[in-house]
Specification:
76 residues
Length: 76
């Protein structure tokens, strides 16, 4: 895939984003506010997943290992 196709693909994705969020009909300050809100929400979701998913995986591993009889737990 050459650079031109990648650039066109990202342009298409950005166009789809504008259509889905109705950014095409907003004023520039409204677009920046909406983009800021969306970026903030995405950043919070990524941070929360980064912090809490490993903890939940470890707890689930310990829970199911006790149920299945595998008594060795992950040491901290």
């Amino acid at each position: 895939m050459d650079f031109k196709r990648v650039k066109e693909y990202f342009a298409w994705l950005y166009y789809q984003y504008q259509i889905i969020t109705c950014c095409a009909v907003m004023e520039p300050w409204e677009q920046s506010m909406l983009n800021t809100i969306i970026l903030t929400i995405v950043a919070m979701v990524v941070y929360t997943a980064y912090v809490f998913i490993p903890i939940h995986i470890r707890l689930a591993w310990e829970f199911f290992s006790k149920i299945c009889g595998y008594d060795s737990s992950i040491s901290n």
